[in-house]
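Table S7 (text form). Paired inputs.
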Amino acid sequence: MLNKFHVFIGIFFAASINAKSLPTKEQLESNEEYRLIKEHKMIPCVFIDKNTDYALQNKCFHISKRLFEITKNKTFLAGVAKGYYKGYGVDQNVKKGLKLYEEIAHSDCAVAVDVQDILGIYYGAKDSPVLDKVKEEYWVKKAAKNGSELSQYSYARMLKNQGKLNDAIYWYKKAAQNGSLSAKYKLAALFREGYPMQINRRQAYQLLHEAAEQGYAPAFHELSFFYDEDGDKEKTEFWHAKFINSDVFKKMQSGMNPDEALIEVFKEQKKKEYIAEVQKEMEEIEKQSSKQK
């Protein structure tokens, strides 16, 4: 379901200021690195997309570029790669963006696996300017083996489409064990459709409830089917109502397909969480700075 999901998910490229050694307000104002990190966070640059004002795209691109020059941290190089590949804030140069992404993906830096996720998507998207199914599978498989729940889920889908059901189930389960809500939902849905899943109905219910408890709207819909099959009218209506009142369903009603709606809702939620976290961090800096005076 979420083939495009990790294009967004994998790009949380904000450098975190260590809470145990927060800088003072004066340090933020006098030190270029701190000032740029703060600005990168406060805009916030990690959520820049095609709908963002070009001037802001450009600002984020140059902040990322300068931060990489100062820190050599490939977290920020990923922001530069994104700018080139997408043409966000700079003249689009897909080839240059890909070269930078692959440099990061082949490294052992903190965001290498995230970038492997991204490359798998970029090489596999239907409208991709670099469509290459061989490279798509290479990067998805590499990220999956390196522990990415997102690519584990995508690799499972890929294997299922290739008719390799047992291998697909293995990776769906691996992704679910690593916390993928999409994989939990998919395992239960496949079970209900009659696939040999090596799980029972109680376990399928459990997977769906785990996903539903974290707000995964497709799980609401699937639970309504499960309870309907088991003749529980009250719970069927409860989960159906929960689904049609979800933000995902509302966006679908406005014309988005399920994937787009799910991505958009997730993005909105993560942006709120991110901004709240940054504000809290900056408040802590202000508080510590006041104590030092």
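Next pair, protein 2 of 2.
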Amino acid sequence: MNRFNPFKILKVQDQEIRHSNMLAWIFNPAENHNFDDRILKRFLLKVLLKPVNEDTLDNMNIIYRLQQASLLDIKVYRELEHIDLVLISEQQHLIIFIENKIYSGEHSNQLQRYYDFIKQTYADYMLLPIYLTIEGTEATQTDYFLAGYEDILDTIEFILANYFERTSTEVVAFLKYYLTIIKEKYVMEPELKRLCKEIYQQNKDIIDMIHSVGNEIDIEPAVHIFKQKYPHIIPVSIKSKTFWFGIDSFIKGKSDEIDNWGGGFPVCFWFTEYFGKLKLTLEVGPFIDASRRINFLNKLESLDIKISEKAKEPGRKYTRIHNGTYAIKDWSDNDELAEAMEKLYEKDDIRILRDKVAKAINEFDWQA
């Protein structure tokens, strides 16, 4: 576990996009691994012949065709119409498209949408849709062949065992580093699993405590990185899981009378942890004068900011006008957190919204 591995140093093992980039490299016959189409063909044949895919494989001629075919003209595309991997052979009139899932699952009927897009766009091609997950999880769309990372592992091990002389020692070492990641993270070997269980049983209390403390969330270091990029941000409060802030274009509406909420800003942002995701919220807070608050909400509404009628009822104090979330893989990675903050803050809808809020604040009569 403690051996040198560049993939661990770069924290690649939990990033779906990095695995997809790796697959794009090994499946591309034109890449500098020098295995031509051997890796791709071995993987395809292994997946298609899995018992779980027996019903999906309705024509065994596909197997014979792949065995005899040359896939050297394959072109590999990343994120074509948001599909993780699309491989196209004009010579064989073949489309292979792969949806790769590490920790996330299907959403928004995406498998059906991807299948429909490929089928319509490449109507005369043979289609091989593959749903790749850690353990070969069943897909909602029955036209997909199921594959797991154990299939990737077996394929690379077979190629290295039988064709290692075709490539350089650097490529062999690189692939072995990747295999180690797969074995440790996704397809744990029985001996490693046995050792893990043995160590855990002997040290359960201390391991549980380390896990608990180690997974405590503290976003403050990431906040400092984020603030350096945006000098117009005015911090209100920072806690372990929450960062409240206003911006300089909201200053006109600031009042010391209501500094117990949002530092006196009439509208305030905050980042917080929300069920494993980072959430950015923009909310209108309480006013001393409830009627003035309703007038301000009407002003926001006049600038095409959606405000519910319930928000204008007497006694209402808080009105959220934006919520956005971003999935976090490693809460201890301050750079990842800071990057997530930036992406949430720079989304087109929030940039437009904060300009509209600033306009409302500056045009509103705060003395009336």
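Residues 154 and 326 are 34 Å apart (CA to CA).
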